[in-house]
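Supplementary notes (optional reading)

For those who missed the lab, this is the record we used. Protein: histidine kinase. Length: 559 residues.
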Amino acid sequence: MKKLIDCRVHKLLLISMIVVPAIPLLLAMFIGYYSYSKTTEKLVVSAIRQSAIDHRDIISAFLKERQTDLQSYLNLIPADHLQWGMDHGDIALMFKNAGGVFQDLGLIAPDGVQISYSGAYELTEKNYLDAPWYQDTIKNGYHVSDVFLGYRNVPHFVVAVTRIIDGKPWVLRGTINSDIFRKLVDGVKLGDTGEAYIVSQDGKFQTARRSGGGLLENDLFNYPYQKKNIITFLGNDDGVDYLLASALMNDGKWRLIVRQKRADAFRSTNIAGYTILLVLLCGGAVIVVLALFTSRKIYETLERQAEAVCTLENQLMRAARLAELGEMSAGFAHEINNPLQIMKSDLALLELVLEDALPSNCEPAVRDEVKDISDQLKLQIDRCAGITREILNFGRSSKPELQKIDLSVYLPGVGAMVEKKATVHGVEMGCEISPETPQIEADPRQLQQVMVNLLNNAIYAVIDRHGSEGGKVKVDATLGADGSAVIKVADNGTGISPDNLTKIFVPFFSTKAPGQGTGLGLSVCHTIISTLGGDLAVESVKNEGTVFTITLPGLKTNS
C-alpha cells in the first residue's frame, strides 16, 4: 500500500512539473504563432496587392504613352497630306522615336481602308471598316484592342487613335511589339513562383503565362466576379493553392493577374511554424527531462525526510526510554544503598561481637583470618556503595558545581571506571599526563560524563576493527598554547568517514548499528564542553583511528 501511495505521489509530482510549465509555454507559442501568422498574412496579401497595383499602373502608363505617341504622330501630319498617306521619312521617324515598341504602323482612311502601311505583312488596302477595334476607335477616339488574329492570322493587339478632319475620321494604328510587352507584363518578382499575366473578360490570355498558357488560349481558372479595381483572393489551379491579386485595366476589358503559390508566399509563416514546433518539441523534451530529474530528486528528498522523521521519532522514543531507565536506575541504586548501609552497620557490630567472643588465647592465624574476612566484606560493601553513589550522581539533575580539578589525579580515576571493560575485550588502555598540564575549573560529574562517553566510544571503535587483540585507547593531557588544558582521547579504531565527520555532533546522529546507540552522546558532550567555555574537536581517518580533543580554560597559578 505504501509503495502504491509513493508511486502516486511521484506520478503527481511528475505530471505537475510537466503540465505547469507546459501550459504557459503552449499558450505563449500559440498566441505568438497566431499573431505572427496573421501579421504575416496581412503583409503578404498587402505586398501582392500593391505589386498588382504598381504593375497595372506601369502597364497602363506604357499603353498611354503609345497612345500619346500615335496621337502626336497623327496630329503632326498635315491634313492635306493624309489623303496621300504617310511617306517613308515620316514612318522611319516614328519607328525611331518609338524605340522598337511598334511592330508595324498603318494609316486608315475614313472609308476603313488602310492606305499606308509599314511592317512585315501585306496589309495595304485592307479594309477594317467592320473590325470591332476599328469601330471602338471611331466611337471613343482611341482604342487598345484585345489580342486577335486579324488578316495576318498571328496573335497581336493594336493601339489606335483618331483625328477628325472635315468631319471625317482618320485612324492611325500601331501593333505593339509582343516581346517587349510580354517582358513588361512578366516583370513581376515575387518569391520563386510569382508571375503576372493579362486575361480578357472572356477568359482568354492576352499575354503568355510563365507557368503555362499561350496567347488566346482559354484560362480555365474560375476567377471571382470583380467590381472593385483591385481584389485579392485564394484559389486552386491544378491542385496547387495560389494567392492571387486581380487588377482591372484597359477600361475594365482586361484583368492583370498577379499570383504566387501559397506555400511560397507564406514560406516565412511555415518556417516560423516549423521553428515553433521544433522549439516546442525541444522545450517539451527539456521540460520532461527536468521534470523527471527534479521530481525524482524531490521525491527522494521527501522520502529521506520521511525516513529522518521516522528515525527521529524512534530516537526520541529510545531517549525517553533511556530517561525512564535512568530514573529507574536511580531508584534501584537508592533501594540497594539502604541494605548496604544496614550490612555495613551489622558488620561493625559483628566485629565488636567477634572481638569479645574470641578467647584471649586464640591463635593469631585464626584472628588474622577473621580480620581479613571482615576487611574484605567492608571493601565490597564500600565498592557497592560507591557504585550506587555514582549511579545516583549520574542520574541526578542538578546545577553544575564548578570545582578545581587536578587532571593528573582526575583522569586516571575516570579511566579506571572503564578499564575493566577494556581489559575484558583485550583493549590496551594508556594515560599520560604532562606535569605542565594546568588545573581547570569544571563540574566533576559533567566532565566525567564526557570522558566516559568518549572512552566508551573509543573502546567500541577499537573492538569493531581489531576484535580482542591489537586495540589501543590512550588519554593525554598537556598544556595548550594559550595556557589552556588540552585533553586528547585517541584510538586506533575504525575511524569516521569524511561525510559523517561533519555530522558527528548533530543530535541523534550515530555511526553505530541500529539499536546500539542513541546518537545523543557526542551531542551532549559537545554541549557540556561548550558550557564550560571550552571546545570539543575531532580528527579522524577511516580505518586508521580517531582523536577527540577537549580544550578547556586553564587556571593560572599564583607565582
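If you only remember one thing from this example: Residues 437 and 479 are 5 Å apart (CA to CA).
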